[in-house]
């Protein structure tokens, strides 16, 4: 995929196409940063929730140390209070690895989707350019330059379809599993939130953060998929515009021929 993306950057034909690629590349870059913040802030809160007792003892000391809190109720065959720090390090390290992997893979997927959207926009632009190049003041028919432009459009559109099929082949199963896990996590955390809503605590904060992250993630990924579908619709509209232009040109040509024949008959 990276080789295909590099090839697309090399084969741009003008500044307008370069602007389209740059625009959606920056959109993907900003999405990656924003998504990292959205994931890492709740992750950081979950990681430090283990040490909330130490933090409160430091800022608001009491006569006795506060008991340790556990964001996740997990039963271990050892004394959790005695081995609290190994337990906390193990859980925090696991959360760190999961969050880092998730941010990296989803940011890369979003960059690929933004690249697909940019290619679809370039296809629409090339179709419109081919239409403008194919007509002139004296001849309302496809010129050689317009035909060449349409051939390039078909070649690029074929590459985009292959790129999309490749992504579907590699990510269909993984995203189906991710969707199931997301729905389960959303349901479980909504249940936990309903239980802890009357008492402020770590569980309420963690459940709220997870629900917020899952909701934002699902919304934005659906937005990207809809943007891809809109790009496909734009291509269809551009091809429809070609047909309308050809019908209009044929109609105008028929009118000119009819008027010319009528004038010849009158003479």
From TrEMBL:
Main location: membrane
Subcellular location: Cell membrane
Keyword Repressor: no
One Gene Ontology term, aspect cellular component: plasma membrane
Keywords: Cell membrane, Membrane, Olfaction, Receptor, Sensory transduction, Transducer, Transmembrane, Transmembrane helix
One Gene Ontology MF term: olfactory receptor activity
InterPro entries: 7tm6_olfct_rcpt (IPR004117)
GO biological process: signal transduction
Transmembrane domains' residue ranges: 34-53, 87-111, 172-192, 204-225
Pfam families: 7tm_6 (PF02949)
Membrane topology: Multi-pass membrane protein
Protein's UniProt name: Uncharacterized protein LOC108622043 isoform X2
Organism name: Ceratina calcarata
Lineage, opening ranks: Eukaryota, Metazoa, Ecdysozoa, Arthropoda, Hexapoda
Gene designation: LOC108622043
């Amino acid at each position: 995929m990276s080789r295909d993306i590099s090839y697309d950057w090399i084969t741009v034909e003008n500044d307008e196409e370069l602007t389209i690629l740059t625009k959606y590349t920056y959109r993907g870059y900003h999405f990656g940063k924003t998504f990292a913040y959205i994931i890492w802030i709740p992750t950081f809160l979950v990681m430090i929730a283990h040490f909330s007792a130490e933090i409160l003892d430091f800022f608001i000391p009491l006569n006795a140390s506060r008991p340790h809190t556990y964001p996740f109720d997990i039963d271990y065959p050892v004394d959790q209070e005695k081995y609290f720090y190994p337990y906390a390090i193990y859980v925090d390290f696991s959360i760190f690895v999961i969050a880092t992997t998730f941010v990296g893979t989803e940011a890369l997927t979003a960059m690929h989707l933004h690249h697909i959207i940019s290619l679809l926009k370039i296809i629409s632009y090339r179709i419109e350019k081919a239409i403008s190049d194919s007509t002139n003041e004296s001849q309302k028919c496809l010129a050689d330059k317009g035909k060449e432009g349409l051939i390039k459009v078909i070649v690029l559109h074929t590459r985009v379809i292959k790129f999309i099929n490749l992504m579907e082949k590699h990510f269909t199963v993984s995203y189906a599993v991710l969707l199931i896990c997301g729905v389960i996590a959303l349901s479980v955390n909504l249940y936990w939130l309903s239980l802890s809503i009357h008492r402020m605590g770590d569980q309420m904060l963690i459940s709220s953060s997870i629900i917020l992250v899952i909701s934002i993630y699902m919304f934005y990924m659906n937005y990207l998929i809809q943007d891809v579908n809109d790009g496909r619709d734009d291509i269809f509209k551009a091809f429809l515009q070609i047909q309308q232009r050809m019908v209009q040109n044929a109609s105008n040509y028929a009118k000119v021929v009819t008027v010319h024949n009528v004038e010849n008959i009158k003479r």
